[in-house]
Write a structure and sequence with these properties.
Layout lengths: L3 E4 L5 H10 L4 E4 L10 E4 L4 H10 L3 H9 L4 E4 L1 H6 E5 L11 E6 L9 E6 L9 E6 L3 E5 L4 E5 L9 E6 L2 E4 L10 H10 L4
Parallel strand pairs: 1-2, 1-3, 3-4, 4-12, 5-6
Antiparallel strand pairs: 6-9, 7-8, 10-11, 11-12
The structure holds glutamine (GLN).
Glutamine (GLN) binds next to α4.
Catalytic activity: L-glutamine + H2O = L-glutamate + NH4(+); aldehydo-D-ribose 5-phosphate + D-glyceraldehyde 3-phosphate + L-glutamine = pyridoxal 5'-phosphate + L-glutamate + phosphate + 3 H2O + H(+)
EC number: 4.3.3.6, 3.5.1.2
Keywords: Glutamine amidotransferase, Hydrolase, Lyase, Pyridoxal phosphate
Length: 199
């Protein structure tokens, strides 16, 4: 069984560790660059991407993260973590840095600040038949994707219908929403299978 790290600079690290625990997969918080060598996959949690990016630079994790992504380490990003994996960010903060690796442009806070959060049923390719109860909290959406990116899920109804909220490119997986908050482990299970090379 692989060990999966959860980036623990800022954001909802504990919730991701709890989901991994529920799946019987060893998870460990990652705050130092050396720890990246001890894990076979990494989750970047939700939180605030500008702050997370600044902390990643300050703790000398940004370059090691880029290196590991470049070498093919599987990484799953939720919400702010999705932004961290994006090659380009719209409506980012001045000088906002990301790890990158996923050939996509995300729009930060796309679902609107005043709305704060909403829930919607979203089907995710590769994660079972039933829709996810997707929770969006000042979430980004994916504005556009490159050739190598597979779209796994979109908002299905309402004025945001069609907006991309789940993507995969090789070992990189990202969702706009937070499956770690709703007790539905199917996307984490998909990620664990990706880490094992079985999906
Ligand atoms: N709006 C946040 C950001 O820009 C993301 C919110 C979240 O992760 N729930 O990073």
């Amino acid at each position: 069984t692989p060990t999966i790290g959860v980036l623990a600079l800022q954001g909802d690290t504990a919730e991701h560790l709890a989901v991994l625990g529920g799946l019987g997969v060893p998870g460990t918080p990652v705050t130092r660059p050396e720890r990246l060598d001890d894990v076979q996959g990494l989750i970047i949690p939700g939180g605030e991407s500008t702050t997370m990016g600044k902390l990643a630079v300050r703790y000398e994790l940004m370059e090691p993260l880029r290196k590991h992504v470049g070498e093919g380490m599987p990484v799953y990003g939720t919400c702010a973590g999705m932004i961290m994996l994006a090659d380009q960010v719209l409506d980012g903060a001045e000088g906002q840095q990301t790890v990158g690796g996923l050939e996509m442009t995300v729009r930060r806070n796309a679902f609107g600040r005043q709305t704060e959060s909403f829930e919607a049923g979203v089907h995710i390719e590769g994660a079972g038949e039933a829709p996810f109860d997707a929770v969006f909290i000042r979430a980004p959406w994916v504005e556009s994707v490159g050739d190598q990116v597979r779209v796994l899920g979109r908002v299905e109804y309402g004025e945001r219908a069609g907006r991309i909220v789940a993507v995969r490119q090789g070992g990189l997986l990202a969702t706009s929403f937070h499956p770690e908050l709703t007790g539905d482990p199917r996307i984490h299970r998909l990620f664990v299978e990706m880490v094992k090379g079985q999906a």
